[in-house]
Amino acid sequence: MFARLLQPDRRDFTSLDEREILSLAIAAEEEDGAIYAEIAVRLANLYPATAKVFEGMAAEEDNHRRRLLDRYVEKFGPRLVPIRREHVRGFIERKPIWLMQAMSLEAVRQLAYEMESAASHFYIEAAARTTDVATRKLLGDLAVEERQHADLAGRLESEALGPEERAAETSEEHRQFLLTYVQPGLAGLMDGSVSTLAPVFAAAFATGNTWSTFLVGMAAAVGAGISMGFTEAAADDGKLTGRGSPLTRGIVTGVMTALGGLGHALPYLIPHFWTATGVAAAVVVVELWAIAFIQNRYMHTPFWRAVLQVVLGGSLVFAAGILIGNA
Q: Which CATH architecture has domain 6-161?
């Protein structure tokens, strides 16, 4: 009932006749095959072995389409009913692949599993609504084959991805993760944590007022986050460097910059000045050590070199803020 109210311009699946069901199945197989083919094209440069997996999936969908089309032409002639998923109430719609900027290997494999599972359920329901023996057999066979597509994907993957290919793709995905998320996030965290130290502690020691200090810290953190986010997004569109979506990198950088600055501003919500300052100083120590750890863990910077760079630089900025605030 609610589905009818929310989707008044769609037909119930139970109202479709055999001709419409076959036309819908043909359109669905065409769309699924196109999605798999597009995924294969997108993965071809970075993940050629996995691209072959999806090429194989696209070929399977095309085979299903041809079998359905042969049955349709045999029984109803050459003219299909112009019906698609979006015309049927309650039908699971596919995400528009052309809107997806970037997809990890796990994401595309999960998408394939969900598509195959939905297709299997569709064919089971379609077979139950068909009385023609030949059509019902075809739909039942396709339901079984769609359930087996996950196994097919596994076989195709095992054939296409040997130990060397798997290692190469894992390495490439890790590299892409570093370029798109870790590097921008680390740059933002470093900028937010270090650059806001001076204004926050200068305001603290100049005013002795925790609320004013918090406002200065909040303004510095948010302003730095916006500035760094736009700078990162505008600096590189990712097409030549392969660093991923500029929007993603900009958001990651901006958020991490703001968080880095807010870390030592939030303690000044504590009304007692020296308690707030002590907590803020402790937070600064944690922030700087966290940055050194991330550099060592993901960027393979020797730990003590990272500590020297980050902690020494942060300490100098911290000291500058206190000196200026006491001037």
A: Up-down Bundle (1.20)
Rounded CA gap, 50 and 153, in Å? 10
224 CB-side CA count, 13 A: 26
What is residue 141's predicted lDDT score, i.e. its pLDDT?
A: 93
- pLDDT band for 62, please (50, 70, 90 cuts): very high
CB 48 within 8 A of CB 23: no
DSSP-derived secondary structure letter, 150: H
Q: What are phi and psi of 74, to 5 degrees?
A: -60, -40
Nearest Cα residue to 224 out of 249, 253, 184: 253
Q: Alpha carbon 276 to chain centroid distance? A: 38
* Rg from Cα positions in the chain: 29
Is 0.70 surpassed by the pTM of this model?
no
Runs of H (alpha helix) within the chain: 2-6, 18-43, 48-76, 105-128, 133-147, 149-160, 163-177, 183-195, 197-207, 210-235, 246-263, 273-298, 303-325
The domains of the chain are located at 6-161, 178-325
21 class by beta-carbon count within 10 Å (0-12 exposed, 13-18 middle, 19+ buried) = buried
Please write the tens of the pLDDT for every residue from 175-232: 667 777 888 888 888 888 777 878 888 888 888 888 998 999 899 889 888 988 888 8
Q: Supply 86's token pair.
A: 């979006």
